[in-house]
Structures are given as structure tokens and as C-alpha cells.
Amino acid sequence: MQKEKKLGRGVAIVGAGMSRFGMFPDKDSKDLFAEAYQEMVASIDKGFDPKDIEAIWIGNFSNDFFIHQAHWGPIISDLLGLAPRPATRTEGACASSTLAFRDATMAIASGLYDVVLVGGVEEMSKRTTEEVTEGLALATFPYEGRAGFTFPGVFGALATAYFAKYGAGREHLMNITIKSHENAPLNPKAQFNKTIADLMAAKKAKAEREGKPVPDWRDEKEALWDPKFNPPVAWPMHLFDCCPISDGASCMLLVAEDIARSFTDEPVYVAGIGQGSGRGLHAAPSLTSFEANKHAAAEAYGMSGYKPQDIQFAEVHDCFSIAELIHIEDLGFFEAGEGYKAVAEGATRREGSMPINTSGGLKCKGHPVGATGVAQLYEVWKQLRGEAGERQIPGRELHVGAAQNLGGTGGTCTFTILERR
Amino acid sequence: MEERPFGDISYEEFLREKKLMGSRCKECGELYVPPRHFCFKCHSDKMQWEQVSGKGELAAFTCIFVAPPYMARRGYGRNNPYCTGVVKLEEGPRVVARIEGVDASKPETINVGMVLQADFIQEGEGEEATTTLVFKPI
After folding, report:
1. Do B81 and A232 touch (CB under 8 A)?
2. Which residue of A has its CA nearest to B72?
3. pLDDT tens by residue, B82-129
4. What are the DSSP E strand ranges found in A312-393?
5. Taking a C-beta distance cutoff of 8 angstroms, is the pair A179, A349 a contact?
6. How many Å is the Cα radius of gyration of chain B?
7. B97, A147: Cβ pair inside 8 Å?
8. N or C end of chain A, less CB within 10 A?
């Protein structure tokens, strides 16, 4: 039934930028997008004329809720002086900007446009934690919200199903958290720039200064087991299993493959892209896998001709630690039920066999939801071009990388494979 | 013969009547709880209502310590967590519902596979007064 999906013509990324991610009381969505756009413009090696942009796709989940402003397409086209060109806002919860990227890719592949700006933005920190939790819960399935599920709650439930099925436990999720906190300090755009060890040392120093009992943690996991350091949010998800509340923006310039080299000698090409939809917890075929992931991956692998073992590194949607584990299995990097063992052996660290989330991931880089998808692709772009600085994957020539983006509680998933030629 | 439409409004109405109801496809026999307008398997729109036993086992759960506003208003939160989960009914379908009769402040004592029975509780005040589907250990 499923025919192999192919693009009508090739599409390349020739420029990319992202704002710093974090909580910025003095910046709004336009400021953040401008910051991302300026970096993108500077990254286009041979320069370009903004007037050549023919259309814009912008991912935004819910600035409607967070700052009471919707309709972000024309706001961004006006910001950049690009009105009256068509500007479309896409919404796929936390996958909103990969939907923008995919729609723009299809628009170029169809022959309609040659040069398109894609991006995403979200401004979340002007609300309280409770309000943001309520806002994000808008993207769960209706039955889940009524049963008292929060976002971390849904992922907490998936974790209990994974633990029961495969014999894993919280200590395995901690490996993911520790790794993300090791990568993020090497990423100047990341929201958090401290390792778990740094945070422990700071807590100990503070206790000493204040004459309070000094915690006697011997290693990172002992600290992460301590509910004073790492309180429960939605058991078994604790504070350090959860991504933060963030503001940020990201953008990229996509062009038809045949004109890519007039912008740069190092374009990064879309090798394959796929998208899937999924059902809620009550109807999902599995509680330890996302059906939308598998559909998206099959489309992207089919389009690219690559297999999971050809992907050299990936950014995956670690909104919660358990999600990273499920994704690396769904995408075929590790067998189902084996991911946690591979993570424990260090396979997903920067120097491991399959580096995952070299950016620090959503956990530490930050997760301004509408900006995340394109920001993940930004990291793949940086790594493929050898421009990732201190966090560049060591000791190998990179040709093929990928990014997986998840919206809601698995309702939308995308998988994008990028390559250098 | 029950004639209500096979949607969420009817499902909620039945819950207020303390009945856990699903829809069964008249074409292929697949059962859905909550009900569906269209059969996921054969795409038929010919459904009939069916009441399920409410007996099942816990497939996944979480204990919520950071509560959404409407649960916080009912007194839940950091010092009074609650448990919610996914229950696999003995008839096959899964439903999501709060789990009562367990100690949510001690999640280690709650286990996937626990046998549970549906119950209906009255909670909330004024405009928020509602009947909530919960499951309890047998």
C-alpha cells in the first residue's frame, strides 16, 4: 500500500541560525527571531539578498496562550521586511518548526519556490510554571488531561511501562541526564551551562557557607537519587528528567538543490524527511514506542536510501529523559529494550559509537517548543559542517546526521536525515 | 437500544450515570473504550454501545507532584500527590483514569500489573462539580 516517498527535486540548507535559548525577561519573540535571523544571514558564505526569499514558514505552538498573540506568519514577514510574501504558521505542538521545515521542503521540491525561509519561535517564560504546565497540556489528548495527566505525567507513565517491560530503572535515565549536562556547557547557545558535578559542588559550597549540613553525595547518581537535589515532578520523572521552560527562535534558508552552491560551497542536503501521527495513551499500539516515530522514520529512510546504521549521529526530542530512550529504539539505532544498556555503556556520548544530542538536548539546551525542530536541525548542520566548536563529534568525518522531533505526547513525530555531499 | 452519538460528550454523560461505555463495530466486532465514530480497523461507521465490566490491570502510571491548576484547586500538589494511569480492561481496550486507593506519595508501592476495578467519585465544587472515573485496587 505504502509507496516510497520521493522529493520532486532536491532541497538544500544554505544558512542557519538560532538565538540563545533561555529565559529572557527583556526579549520578546521578535527580538529572538531577529537574533536567529542575523546569525543565519552571516552564515551564508557567499551572501544573499533577502529580497530573494519567496515565502516563509514559521513554527509556533502556542504564543496564543503564552503571550496572547497568535498569527505569527505575518509578524515575522513584517519584522524581516518581507511582506507581502506569503507567510504561513505551522502548529504541531513541540514539532511545530519541523512541520514548517517539511512544508517548505515540499514547496521547493514541487518547483513552486526556489528560496524559502523557515523557522520557529516560542516565548514561554513570562508565565508561571503552573501556567506553562497548563499551556503544554493543551497538546495532550483530551482524555489524558481529564484524568489528571500532565505532560511530565504522560512520559512518567511511559517510563513505568518501559521499566516493567525491560527491567530498566531510574538509574538508567540518569545516564541520559548526566550526558546532556556534559554536552551543554560546550554549547554557547544552551540554557544550562553546568554539569551535574558542577551543580553538586555549588550546592555543597552553599551549604558550607550557610553553616548547613553538607550533602555527602559521592557521585552524580547519588545526588540525582536525593529528592532534595532532584525532587519528583511526575514520578518517575524528577526535576532532572524534565526539560526547562525556555524562550528562543531558530531559522534556516532552504533553496533548490541546483542553486545551492551559489550561496555556499558547503550546503547540507535534505536526504530524507518523514512525518507521522499517533494516538493517545489509551489507543497507542505500544506504551514503549511511538507509532508516529516509526511511520516518520520509515518515510525518511525510504526517501534517503539510508538505514539506521548509516546515521552517524542524531538530535532526538528528549523533552523527558525516557523520551530519548524510546526514540533511539524507535529510530532503529538500538533494538527495542536495548537502548538503556547502550546508553549505560556510553554509546550515546560525544565520543561514543552513536552520539545523541551533542547540543545538550532539550533538557539542557532548552526547549522553546516552536523553535525546537529547526534548532535540532541547526545542530546537525553545525556538526556536518565541522562548525560545532568544542562539542564537535571527535575523531570522525561526518556525512550523515539526523533529527527527530516529537509533538505533544507522540501525536506528531518527524524524522529528518541531512547529508553532506 | 441506546441511540446516543458515539462521541466524547456521550462518553462523559455515561460516566456521570456511573457507566463505563464503549462502542463496538457492527462490521468487524472491534471494541473501543472510549467510543469512536469510526472503526479504526475497518473504517465502518456502524457502531453499537456496550457497557464494559470496569475490571482491568494497571499498564502504566505516574504520581503527579506538580499538579495542573484544576487539580491544585482540589488540594493536590507537592505535599498531596495523586496517581493517574493507563488501565488495560479485561475486554481489551485501555483507558486513562486516576488511580485511587493507592499511596501516591510512595510510588514504589504501586505496580504495573495491579488488578483494578472502576469506580465513580463525586468531586470539585460549584461549577467544577463532576463525576470522575477512577480505578481502585481490588
Report:
1. yes
2. A130
3. 999 999 999 999 999 999 999 999 999 999 999 999 999 998 788 878
4. 313-315
5. yes
6. 16
7. yes
8. N
**Predicted complex: ipTM over 0.90:** yes
Q: How far is B77 from chain A (nearest CA, A)?
A: 10
Task: Collect all residues of chain B within an 8 Å Cβ-Cβ radius of residue A283.
Answer: 32, 40, 93-94
Chain A touched by B64 (CB under 8 Å):
yes
Residues 6+ apart with CB under 8 A from A50: A41, A80, A81, A82
Among A130, A137, A157, the residue with its CB nearest the CB of B61 is: A157
Instruction: List the grid coordinates of A61.
Output: 505552538
CATH of span B55-137:
2.40.50
Q: Which residues of A are catalytic?
A: 94, 367
Q: Hey, where are the domains in chain B?
A: 8-51, 55-137
The answer, yes or no, to whether residue B3 has pLDDT greater than 80, is yes
Identify the CA nearest to A173 among candidates A323, A361, A315: A323
Q: What predicted TM-score, i.e. pTM, was given to this entire model?
A: 0.97
Q: What is the DSSP string of chain B?
A: -----SSHHHHHHHHHTT--EEEEETTT--EESS--SS-TTT----EEEEE---EEEEEEEEEESS--HHHHTTT-BTTB-EEEEEEEETTS-EEEEEE-SS-TT-GGG--TT-EEEEEEEEE--GGG-EEEEEEEE-
Mutating which of B13, B39, B65, B111 best tests the A interface, going by the most A Cβ atoms within 10 A? B65
